[in-house]
Structure formats: structure tokens, C-alpha cells
Write a structure and sequence with these properties.
The chain has nine helices and three strands. The chain is mainly alpha-helical. It has one domain: minor pseudopilin epsh fold. It binds manganese (III) ion. Manganese (III) ion binds next to helix 2.
């Protein structure tokens, strides 16, 4: 990789962290034996307290997400055509690929997006007027939207994700099992992810134990609305 390419890659990462590109921009690096890379957390492990405790973040990022990236890299060793494909393109055709790519590719994509959708309390900004207007149109009110999002999280049985998705010119709340996501052609609601919350017990169990509903309520305090606004703007234009 040349210095220019490295610089471009750094700029792309910086732009991604600042929230002006869609989450699809997880590129594989064919120069590497392991093409998929776990980028650094955009904040310290204790930065999301009290909603999410430091130990949970350390284990979630350092073990769970890292394991998805490792297993995805192992899975694509046997599928060389995937080694140069952006992850969003891989996920869009997931029904033709092995379960290891679905589970670990989804896991890598979802967690990379998830970290970017959170920020230390008080630093994530506010929902934009455009987002608020669209939410009012599609859900009736902001409170109706947050209630629907929490309900999607509460009622997903077992492990999965709650989503706010832009699809067919409107915002929809949905949930997926395991590491599936709205990019995959196999899910109920396909579209552009705008907001996502991790419903796996590993995301909250140390602090909240069986009280998933309490985690879902506390989580609003660490949403990075600046990032959500940018994803909505990109998806809806
Ligand atoms: Mn997780």
C-alpha cells in the first residue's frame, strides 16, 4: 500500500467516524492476509458510563466484536472473490454464502455501525429538524417512535438487533435475529440502517442482568444523534 493510499484510507476512516458517510463503507483491504479490520473504538471504554459500563464495553469490543472480525477473515480465506468486496455488497447477497459469512460479516458490520452510533452522554447532539419531521410523519410523535424502538428491542426473542431503517421513502422500526441486518436480502425489512441497538445479552448483562427494558431506556442517553442525522440525510436524499 502506498503512502497516498494510506492517507486516503485514514481520511476515509476519519470521515466515517465523523459521520458523513453511510455505514456501508467498510472496505476490505486485499493487500492484507486478513482483509477485514476492526477499527479503534471512537471513545474510551468508560466513556459511555453510566448507561454502559466499562467492563461491558471492554469485553464487547475487545472479545465479541474482535471474534467476529477474526472469524470473518477466516471464512473469506476459502472465498477469494469476497476478499476485495465491500462488506455491504457481501451482505446484500448473503443467502448464497455460508453461515459463517452471514454470522460474522453481519457481526462485524453491525458492531462497527453500533460503536459509531454512540457517544459519551451529552456529546451526541440532538435529532435534526429533518429527522424529527420525518419521525412525526411516520410514527405520529417522537415519543411514539422511541416507544416503538424500545418495544422492538424488548420483544425480539433471544439475540438480535433493533433497527430504525429508511425504506421506500419512510422510516420503519424493525428487529432482526442473531447478526442479521437490513442490508441482507433475507430479512423482513430491507433498507438503509439509521439507528441500531444490540440486543444480545453480552451488550448489557453485567450491569442490567435480565432487565433488557432498563438497558433499552438508559441507552438513549448515549445515542450519537449527529451520526444518526448524517445517516438519515444520506439515505433520504
Ligand atoms: Mn454485540
Amino acid at each position: 500500500m502506498t503512502t497516498v493510499m494510506r492517507t486516503l484510507r485514514f481520511v476515509a476512516l476519519a470521515v466515517a467516524v465523523l459521520g458523513t458517510t453511510p455505514p456501508a463503507a467498510i472496505a476490505a483491504d486485499p493487500d492484507k492476509g486478513a482483509p477485514f479490520v476492526q477499527e479503534p473504538l471512537p471513545y474510551a471504554a468508560d466513556a459511555l458510563e453510566p448507561a454502559i459500563d466499562k467492563a461491558t464495553m471492554e469485553i464487547h469490543y475487545g472479545r465479541h466484536h474482535a471474534a467476529y472480525v477474526k472469524a470473518l477473515n477466516e471464512a473469506v480465506q476459502k472465498l477469494p472473490e469476497l476478499r476485495t468486496m465491500p462488506l455491504d455488497e457481501i451482505l446484500a447477497g448473503i443467502s448464497k454464502l455460508p453461515p459463517a459469512v452471514r454470522n460474522n460479516g453481519g457481526g462485524h458490520y453491525n458492531h462497527t455501525l453500533f460503536w459509531s452510533l454512540m457517544a459519551p452522554p451529552g456529546s451526541g447532539g440532538e435529532p435534526s429538524p429533518a429527522l424529527k419531521q420525518q419521525v412525526a410523519k411516520d410514527f405520529g410523535s417522537w415519543d411514539a417512535f422511541t416507544a416503538a424502538f424500545e418495544e422492538a428491542g424488548r420483544t425480539r426473542f433471544g439475540s438480535g438487533w433493533a433497527w430504525l431503517v429508511w425504506t421506500d421513502g419512510r422510516l420503519v422500526v424493525t428487529s432482526t435475529p442473531n447478526q442479521d441486518n437490513p442490508l441482507m436480502e433475507v430479512v423482513d425489512v430491507r433498507g438503509a440502517p439509521i439507528l441500531a441497538n444490540d440486543l444480545w445479552e453480552h451488550a448489557y448483562y453485567l450491569k442490567y442482568q435480565n432487565k433488557r427494558a432498563d438497558y433499552l431506556k438508559a441507552w438513549w442517553s448515549v445515542v450519537n444523534w449527529n451520526r444518526v442525522n448524517a445517516l438519515f440525510q444520506t439515505a433520504s436524499k
